[in-house]
Each structure stands twice: as C-alpha cells, then as structure tokens.
Amino acid sequence: MLRLYKSKSSNQYAMYSLILSDLGFVKECLSELKGIIDSKKDAPLVSEALFNAALIRLYSCFDGNKALKKSILDDLPDGAKEVFRFFKNYRDKHISHKVNPIDQMKPGVILNSGENKEKIVIAVGCFGMKDMSFVDPSFINSSLGFTEALIEYVENNVKELEAEYLKEAQSESIEMMYRLPSVKIATPNSDHLHKNKS
Prior knowledge:
Blueprint: H1 10-38, H2 44-60, H3 80-96, E1 104-111, E2 121-129, H4 137-170, H5 174-179, H6 191-194
Antiparallel strand pairs: 1-2
Helix pairs in contact: 1-2, 1-4, 2-3, 3-4
C-alpha cells in the first residue's frame, strides 16, 4: 500500500527527486549525443535536438520556486560556476532567443553569368549560417561533466531527505499511517498551460 504522507521533509524530498529525474534525462541526451559524435554518424537533426533538449531541461532545474538554488554551485567541483554561466548564456543566446552573431540568414539573388546572354535574375534565396557547437566534443564533455557533478550532489540530497522522511514516517502512529489517503497522481487539464505567470 502506498499512502500520501506529508511531513517536514516531504516537499524537499519530492522536489529533489523530480530534479534528479530531470538530470537523468539530461545525462541520457548528452550520452546519446556523445555516442553519435564518437561514431562519426551524420545526424545533425538528432544531434541538435538532443543538445537543445539537454540544455533546456538542465537549466529548468534552476528555474522557479521548486528549483535548485544557484548557491549550490559553491558545493560542486572547481569550474562549476563558469560552466553554469557559459552554458546558460549559450542556451539563452543560441537556443531560447537566437540573439547571437553566428545564427544568421542573408537574402540574396542568383544571377546568370551575363556572358553572351541577357543579364537576368534566375532565382532568389536565403543563405545562412548557424551554430554547430552541439557537435563539438569539448562542449558535450564539459556539459556532461557538469551534469554528472549535479547528479551526484542531488543524489546525496535525495538520500539524506529520504532517510529523514523515513524517520519522520516511522515516528508516527502506525494506525494513523494506515488511515492516510492513497497516493494518487492527478493529471491536470490543459487549462494550466494557458494561464499567464503572475
């Protein structure tokens, strides 16, 4: 039987467990991307999608009121703050908002040679350049290293909170515990997607 029990540590325990799940997703994306790069497989769409998904989910762990505090970076290995800032800046400028000098598109015209013919415009098009850092092994290795350090930190917190939560639960009346409601996850309707943040 699984019962819903709220205690002093239960919210923190649930929050860190959710963050650990998100970080697991990030690590899987980056590991999969590393495998693609190491195998020299030509998969730019999948590579970009994996890298973007990893960075978006990684930094969502620091957003909102149920998130990691940036102060935890002090508890991670040397260089964690720099890696955090670098990839957050990268996510903001190259993935979320595209405000960088690399991603660009220039309109242009294709002309015939004009030699021995009437000079004409044959076609138009846009010629572009985009960032391809997601296939750079050093990008993947540093973001993966940062993620693994975060996972270790969060796993340690989950273990401590789990022990505290268990101790709290075991100190309660067993009869009261059996009367608690069952744990149920309610799927919300889509209305929450349309509400503005306040």
